[in-house]
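Incident log, structure service

09:12 report received: a user says their structure output differs between two submissions of the same chain.
09:20 pulled the input from the user's history:
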Amino acid sequence: CGINRSRFYDWAMRLPIVGYSFFVLSHDVLGFCEQAAQAAALSERPDGAFIIATLARVSQWIFVALLTVLPIFRQRPIAKSESVLPRIGALLTVSLAPLFMLLDRAPADLVINSVSVVLSITANVFSAVTVSFLGRSLSVMPEARQLVKSGPYKIVRHPLYLCEILGVVAILLQYRSLSATALSVLIVTLQIGRASCRERV
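09:34 re-ran on a clean worker, output below:
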């Protein structure tokens, strides 16, 4: 129990999530740069579909980057779930979203990618607003730091989780496959369970 509440343990729980998300994000960015280099003719005179597809991909990077950076600045918890399953569920929830970048993307579609961009930007903006109210009370695991009741938390009990689900839907639109749909359903299910565990803490 002592090490469970130590500063070392707290940082040990942050770094794997940060490192993993950064690795997958870097992998997708480098992959995109290689594709852009191979399609130099298209990038010199890009059409609307190419521009929107690129914006959709960049918005996905911003969303994953936000999930990568946020755990670094959180406070240490004053209470936490003592059960192992809620921790595993929380870890899986944040670890699954970057896996989309390892799947094959659907062919570029101007309308669908435009919707994806709008949803992703909305999710990112509201995530940033929510985090500004949440501050250093942010946590990945089912832990309590400080009860926040202002801003978005006056309206929705778990606004950040809602933004993350919206971001996942935006990403799903870029892939439109059975595997991407299954991954999305799994993430949303885990997110709902995560919210319930957080409430109990």
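09:41 both user submissions now match this output. Likely a transient worker issue. Closing.
09:42 reviewer note: The radius of gyration is 18 Å. The longest helix spans residues 7-38.
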